[in-house]
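Need a sequence for this fold. Nothing fancy.
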C-alpha cells in the first residue's frame, strides 16, 4: 500500500498497531505467518552443477565425441595400448579442464564473500511500550522501530516521528546527498504516484540514518520490501551466453559439420574404389576415424580455459575479481559502459571545492556549527555534507578536537528541514558567539550585516544581489552551497528557539561542495573514447548535477545529451531506440529505467557493461552482457549478481580490465589459428594420402601432435603480452566471429602449405627407405612445422622481428615439445608403440629445412597483407 499518502495515525490503524508497538504475542504470530525479515538467498552452485556447466561446453562435447570414437577404434583393433592411450589422454584433458574451471570460479566466489559485510544485524524495536534490541530478521509489519544516526534501516517503514532525521539512500536511489525526512503525508504527482527518491516520509531497507533520530512503523519486510522487489527482479532475469561462448559454439558447429562431411566423403570414396567388403569397410572406417581425430583440436578447450584463467588471475592482481571464467573475455569486446555515478565515477564523499568570504573564520564557524564527530581512529562520522565542512576546516590548519574543546557548545537550535538552518552557541576566548549555517537564501534573509575585510558593515541591496548571483553561479555548476553567519552575545539567551536567536546576524561567507569526480576517471573516460567504447552515466541525482559531472569528465558536451527518468518514461520504445545513441546521461532514474537503458543498447547490437554499487543498480547489472559491482561501497545484492567485482571501486580498473579482455581474445584468436591450421594440414594430408592409396598417420600420431606439439606452444601463446595500440582500435562487433581479421584465411593457406610440406617429406623419404620411414618423416615434419609456426603465431599482423618483448613461456614450451618429439621417435620401445622408426641425419635434415620454411612464408604473407591494408587506408 502507498502508506506515504496517508497520515501517521491512519497508517498505524491500517497496520493494526499503535505508537507503543505490537504485543509480543502478536509479533510472534505475524513472524510465524509472514516469515523472517530476510531476502531470499541465492542458491549456491553444487559441485555437481559446476561440473555439469564445464561439461556442456561445446568444445568439451567435441572432446567427448573424440573419446567415444577412439574407444570404438580401440575395440575394433582389439584393445591395443596405443588405442586406449588415446582415450586416456582425451579424458585427462577433459578432467584437467573441468578442475581448472571449477577452481578458478570457486576462487572468485571466495574473494567475493571476503568483501561482503552484513548490515542491519539488529534493530531497536518498541513492543508494548518497552524498547528492546532484537535481530533484524525478527521484525514484522507493525513493529515500531527507533532510529538514530549510524543505524542501518532494517525494513521498509513509514516514519511517525522525526527529529532532524536524514537518511542516506544512495544504494537505492543513486542520489549522493542524504534526504531530510518528515512525517507529513505526501501528495501524489500528476501521474498519481511519488518516485521512490521523493518519498520523504518513508525509510527503506538498504539505506542508513546519518543524522538526527526518528521512529518508524514497519510496512514491509523481507522480499516484500523495495529491496526485496529488486532482488526478485534479479532472480527472474535470465543469464545469456557471453560473446566467447557464442563464438566457440559457432566454431564447434563448423568443426562438427566439416568433420562429418569430410569423413563421410573419404569413407564413401574408399568403399567405392576398393569394393564393398568387410575388410574395406573396416579399413575405410579406420581412415575416417583418423580424419575425425585430425579435425578435432583436442587441446583447444584446455588452451582457452587456461588463457581465461591466466587473465582472471591477472585481473585479480589489478583489483578486478571475475566470477565467471568466460566473462573475462567479454570485457574485451565491450562497446558500451553504462556506469552509475555515485561512488563509481565520483568518490561518494562530499568535498568543499569553492568558498567565498574570510576563509579561516568561515572554516572555523562551519566546523563548530555541525554535528559530525571524530572517531577514535581519526575518521569523521556524520552527515556527508557536514563531514565535508570538517575536512575543509582541517585543510585550513585547524585541529578539530582542539577546536571543539576551545569553543565548547553551550546551546543550540537543531537543524530543521522547514527553516533549513541550524544554530549553535559557543563559549570562546573572546566571549559568547552564535554561529548559524544553512541554505544561502534563508541565511541572507536573517542577516543585517556582512563581514567585509574583517569589519561588520550594514548589508545593502547591492551586496545581497551580488551574493545571490554568486550563489546561483555555484548552483548552476551543480554545487551544493551552504552559507554561514554569526552574532556576538553578551550571555546565553534564555529562549534559544530559532525564531528568537536566528535574526540580526552578520554574514561570514559561502562554502560550495560537490561529490567530486575520482581523479583517475577523466583519463579513463578519454581512454574509452580512443578505444571506441562509449560511456553512459546513469544516476539518481538531479539532472543539473549529472550534467555538470558528465561535462567535467568528458562524457557529454551539451545538456541536450541528458534526459531524466520521467522523460524516458514518456518515450515509446521506437522513439527511445531512435534517440538512444545521442543520450549519454540519465538522471533521476529508477531501477527499471536502468534495465531499459541497458536492454536498449543490447537490442541495438552493442555489447554492454553495467557498473554500479547500489541495490538500485543490481537489476541492470544482471541484465548487462557484463555486470560490474563495487567491492568496497557495493551492497551484497550487487556483488552477488555481478560478473566482476572491483575490489578498489575504481572506474579506471574497468578500463584496464577491458584492455586485458582484448589481450585475451587476441591470444585466443592466435591459438585458434595456430591449432586449426595444423588440424587442416592433418586433414588434408590424411585425405590426399587416402586418395593416393596409403595411410599416412595413425590416430595416435595425430593425437600426439594435437596435444603435445600443438597444445603446449598454444598455451604459451595465450600468455603473450598485449600488442602496442590495443586500446586505440575500436572494439569488435557482436557479429564478428573467431575467424575475422584474417584468422580464417590464415588457417586455410597455412594449413595447405603445411600439408604440402608434410606430403613432400613423406614422398622424399619413402622413396629411399619405405613407408614407415616416410610416415615417420611426415610425423616429424608436422611436429617441427608447428614448433617453427609458433614463432610467427605471436602476432596475427605484426612481424615477429618487430616484437620487443620475448615470450619465455613459448621458448620453454617449444623446447619441451621438441624433446618429447625426439623421445617418441628415437626411444626404443616407445617408437614401436607409436609405430615410428629412427631417422638418419639426412632424413632429419630434410624435415628440419622444409619445416623452417614456414617462418619466412608466414612473415612474407603478413608483409603483403599489411602493405595492402595500408594502401586501402591511404585511399580512404
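Here you go.
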Amino acid at each position: 500500500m502507498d502508506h506515504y499518502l496517508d497520515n501517521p495515525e491512519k497508517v498505524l490503524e491500517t497496520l493494526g498497531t499503535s505508537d507503543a508497538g505490537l504485543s509480543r504475542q502478536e509479533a510472534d504470530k505475524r513472524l510465524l505467518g509472514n516469515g523472517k525479515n530476510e531476502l531470499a538467498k541465492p542458491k549456491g552452485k553444487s559441485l555437481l552443477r559446476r561440473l555439469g556447466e564445464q561439461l556442456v561446453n561445446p568444445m568439451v562435447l567435441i572432446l567427448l565425441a573424440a573419446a567415444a570414437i577412439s574407444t570404438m577404434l580401440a575395440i575394433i583393433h582389439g584393445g591395443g595400448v596405443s588405442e586406449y592411450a588415446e582415450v586416456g589422454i582425451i579424458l585427462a584433458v577433459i578432467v584437467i579442464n573441468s578442475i581448472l574451471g571449477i577452481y578458478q570460479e570457486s576462487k572468485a566466489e571466495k574473494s567475493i564473500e571476503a568483501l561482503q559485510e552484513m548490515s542491519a544485524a539488529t534493530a531497536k524495536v518498541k513492543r508494548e511500550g518497552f524498547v528492546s534490541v532484537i535481530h533484524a530478521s525478527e521484525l514484522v509489519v507493525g513493529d515500531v522501530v527507533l532510529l538514530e544516526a549510524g543505524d542501518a534501516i532494517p525494513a521498509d517503514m513509514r516514519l511517525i516521528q522525526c527529529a532532524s532525521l536524514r537518511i542516506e539512500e544512495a544504494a537505492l536511489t543513486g542520489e549522493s546527498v542524504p534526504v531530510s525526512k518528515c512525517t507529513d503525508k505526501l501528495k501524489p504527482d500528476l501521474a498519481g504516484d511519488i518516485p521512490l527518491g521523493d518519498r520523504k516520509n518513508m525509510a527503506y531497507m538498504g539505506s542508513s540514518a546519518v543524522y538526527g533520530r526518528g521512529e518508524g512503523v514497519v510496512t514491509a519486510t523481507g522480499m516484500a520490501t523495495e529491496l526485496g522487489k529488486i532482488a526478485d527482479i534479479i532472480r527472474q532475469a535470465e543469464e545469456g551466453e557471453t560473446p566467447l561462448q557464442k563464438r566457440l559454439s559457432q566454431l564447434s558447429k563448423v568443426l562438427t559439420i566439416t568433420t562429418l562431411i569430410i569423413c563421410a566423403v573419404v569413407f564413401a570414396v574408399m568403399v567405392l574404389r576398393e569394393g564393398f567388403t568387410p575388410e574395406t569397410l573396416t579399413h575405410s572406417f579406420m581412415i575416417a576415424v583418423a580424419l575425425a581425430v585430425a579435425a578435432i583440436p583436442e587441446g583447444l578447450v584446455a588452451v582457452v580455459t587456461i588463457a581465461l584463467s591466466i587473465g582472471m588471475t591477472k585481473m585479480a592482481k589489478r583489483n578486478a575479481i571475475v566470477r565467471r571464467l568466460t566473462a573475462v573475455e567479454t570485457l574485451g569486446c565491450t562497446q558500451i559502459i553504462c556506469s552509475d555515478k555515485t561512488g563509481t565515477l565520483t568518490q561518494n564523499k562530499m568535498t568543499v571545492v569553492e568558498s567565498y568570504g574570510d576563509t579561516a573564520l568561515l572554516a572555523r564557524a562551519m566546523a563548530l556549527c555541525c554535528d559530525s564527530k571524530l572517531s577514535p581512529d581519526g575518521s569523521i562520522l556524520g552527515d556527508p555534507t557536514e563531514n565535508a565542512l570538517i575536512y575543509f576546516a582541517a585543510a585550513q590548519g585547524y585541529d578539530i578536537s582542539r577546536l571543539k574543546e576551545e569553543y565548547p557548545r553551550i546551546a543550540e537550535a537543531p537543524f530543521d528541514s522547514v527553516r533549513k538552518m541550524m544554530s549553535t552557541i559557543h563559549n570562546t576566548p573572546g566571549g559568547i558567539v552564535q554561529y548559524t549555517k544553512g541554505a544561502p537564501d534563508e541565511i541572507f534573509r536573517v542577516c543585517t550585516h556582512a563581514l567585509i575585510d574583517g569589519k561588520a558593515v550594514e548589508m545593502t541591496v547591492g551586496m545581497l544581489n551580488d551574493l545571490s548571483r554568486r550563489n546561483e553561479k555555484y548552483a548552476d555548476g551543480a554545487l551544493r552551497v551552504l552559507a554561514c553567519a554569526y552574532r556576538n552575545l553578551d550571555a546565553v539567551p534564555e529562549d534559544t528557539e530559532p525564531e528568537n536567536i536566528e535574526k540580526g546576524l552578520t554574514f561570514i561567507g559561502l562554502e560550495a561542495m560537490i561529490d567530486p569526480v575520482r581523479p583517475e576517471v577523466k583519463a579513463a573516460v578519454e581512454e574509452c573514447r580512443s578505444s571506441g567504447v562509449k560511456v553512459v552515466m546513469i544516476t539518481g541525482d538531479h539532472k543539473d548535477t549529472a550534467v555538470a559531472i558528465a561535462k567535467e569528465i568528458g562524457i557529454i558536451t551539451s545538456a541536450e545529451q541528458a534526459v531524466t527518468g520521467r522523460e524516458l518514461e514518456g518515450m515509446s520504445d521506437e522513439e527511445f531506440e531512435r534517440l538512444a545513441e545521442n543520450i549519454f546521461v540519465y538522471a533521476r532514474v529508477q531501477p527499471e529505467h536502468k534495465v531499459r537503458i541497458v536492454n536498449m543498447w543490447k537490442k541495438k547490437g552493442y555489447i554492454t557493461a553495467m557498473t554500479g554499487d547500489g541495490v538500485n543498480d543490481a537489476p541492470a547489472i544482471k541484465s548487462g552482457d557484463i555486470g560490474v559491482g563495487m567491492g568496497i561501497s557495493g551492497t551484497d545484492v550487487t556483488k552477488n549478481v555481478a560478473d566482476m567485482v572491483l575490489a578498489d571501486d575504481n572506474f579506471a580498473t574497468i578500463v584496464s580490465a577491458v584492455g586485458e579482455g582484448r589481450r585475451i581474445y587476441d591470444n585466443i584468436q592466435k591459438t585458434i589459428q595456430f591449432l586449426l591450421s595444423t588440424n587442416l594440414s592433418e586433414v588434408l594430408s590424411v585425405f590426399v594420402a587416402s586418395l593416393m592409396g596409403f595411410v599416412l598417420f595413425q590416430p595416435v600420431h595425430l593425437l600426439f601432435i594435437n596435444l603435445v606439439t600443438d597444445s603446449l606452444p598454444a598455451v604459451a601463446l595465450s600468455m603473450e603480452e598485449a600488442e602496442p595500440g590495443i586500446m586505440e582500435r575500436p572494439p569488435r562487433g557482436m557479429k564478428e566471429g573467431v575467424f575475422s581479421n584474417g584468422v580464417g584465411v590464415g588457417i586455410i593457406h597455412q594449413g595447405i602449405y603445411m600439408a604440402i610440406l608434410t606430403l613432400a617429406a613423406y614422398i622424399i623419404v619413402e622413396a629411399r627407405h619405405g613407408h614407415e620411414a616416410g610416415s615417420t618423416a611426415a610425423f616429424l615434419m608436422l611436429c617441427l612445422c608447428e614448433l617453427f609456426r609458433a614463432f610467427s603465431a605471436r602476432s596475427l599482423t605484426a612481424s615477429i622481428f618487430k616484437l620487443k618483448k620475448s615470450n619465455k613461456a613459448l621458448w620453454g614450451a617449444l623446447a619441451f615439445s621438441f624433446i618429447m618429439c625426439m623421445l617418441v621417435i628415437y626411444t626404443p620401445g616407445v617408437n614401436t608403440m607409436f609405430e615410428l622408426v629412427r631417422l638418419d641425419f639426412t632424413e632429419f635434415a630434410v624435415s628440419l629445412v622444409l619445416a623452417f620454411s614456414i617462418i619466412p612464408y608466414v612473415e612474407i604473407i603478413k608483409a603483403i597483407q599489411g602493405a595492402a591494408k595500408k594502401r586501402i587506408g591511404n585511399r580512404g
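For context: The longest helix spans residues 651-692.
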